[in-house]
Design a protein that fits this description.
Elements (H helix, E strand, L loop, with lengths): L4 H13 L13 E10 L2 E10 L6 E8 L7 E7 L5 E6 L6 E7 L6 E7 L8 E9 L5 E8 L8 E6 L12 E2 L6 E9 L2 E8 L5 E6 L7 E4 L11 E7 L5 E7 L4 E7 L9 E2 L7 E11 L8 E7 L5 E6 L2 E6 L3 H6 L2 E5 L7 E5 L5 E6 L2 E6 L4 H6 L2 E5 L7 E5 L5 E6 L2 E6 L4 H6 L2 E4 L4
Antiparallel strand pairs: 1-2, 1-20, 2-3, 4-5, 5-6, 6-7, 8-9, 9-10, 10-11, 12-13, 13-14, 14-15, 16-17, 17-18, 18-19, 21-24, 21-32, 22-23, 24-25, 26-27, 28-29, 30-31
Length: 441
Amino acid sequence: MKPTRALALVLTTLATSVLVGVPAAHAAGPVPHYLMTAFTNSSESNMYVYDSPNATNFSLVRANAYRPPSGLIRDPSVIRHSDGYYYVVYTTGWTGNTIGFARSADYTNWTFLRNVTVGLNGSTGSTWAPEWFRDSDGSVHVVFSASTTGTSGQFRPYRITATNGDLSAWTSPVPLGIPANYIDSFLVKVGGTYHNFLKNETTKYIEHATATSLNGPWQFVGTGNWAGWGSGLEGPAVVQLPDGRWRIYFDQYAAGRYYYADSADLNSFGAKVELPGLTGTARHFTVLRENVGDSTAVPTGNRSLRSANFPDRYVRHRDNLAYIDPISTATDRADATFTIGAGLANSGCYSFQAVNFPGYYLRHNNMRLTLARDDGSALFRGDATFCGRAGLAGAGTTSFESYNFPGRYLRHYNYELRLDLRENTSTFAGDASFTVAAPLS
């Protein structure tokens, strides 16, 4: 429950007394946001969602974020599609000829879409480890490993390609051109070269193949213990870091340990490093990096936010919800003043703490902006963090992109503050732009 206003005035006085020497601005983005979807050692039927600001230290955002209506959710792979939604594709069972799909607007609440039959020998086969791959021409593929004779058979990688924009229709499976008994293909493309990191199911090493076409021919450039990581590894996943280096994650499944290793060029890698916090818990995951914000620095300290297209209205909290309102009374002015500081989830972004209710921040909840007490969770920190961008409306304004839902901006609609996907319209630009002004209280 929110504090009483009498208590709030005392807290405000105390808070204001220490707000001396606050810098005008702090280091700004763009900042990376890393989203992980995983199954765990404890469950093959529930997907966990994690978040990281640095690709190393991951915090749990939501346990049991998605459970399919039937079957398993092993090996969930995540992508952000051009429609703004997040999609996962996953292994539905140890045997069978389907892969599963689910979708989310916010990556914490997922909706089952469909199981897609890939048609490789029906229930007597096995279909494992589907991974998203978006090619440089914009085409969207799923690469999976299949055996026509069940779990003990000879696996080969195949791909299917989306034939429509909502990812509901797919081509028939096409062999990738890799020899038999390889699983867990993960693809990245650099320039004109495709890189495939995959598990040799015979030797249990993660190997590396390259090609100039998605259909091959593939040349193995790293075989056996080429990287020095040892055997008994699977589930490779690769992400590029902001400095241009590459990071590969992999699962030492027998020991229940998770590792990563870094490379400047995808050809030679450093030693494996155990992933802190998640090793022993997470299994066969992928990591999606998205950049949020730009180099816009936002003034910090006590400030008020004036609407760009309704300049007589300011952002304020009222009954635990956020609005843009005309300001007249002392209460209005206090409710429209926030301490802007380093983002709770990432210091390259910003969080907005109410000056009259210290410890309470603006955060989004089901895309509506609310005022809520910081509960210390990773979910709250992400929901209460916004990254500055040059104002969409121009003229010295600032826009704020959600840290944990990249592509969604703080905007007003019917005078209510919410998060919406960016639209290329002048109305949206005005609704999502603000002037960071001197504090009203």
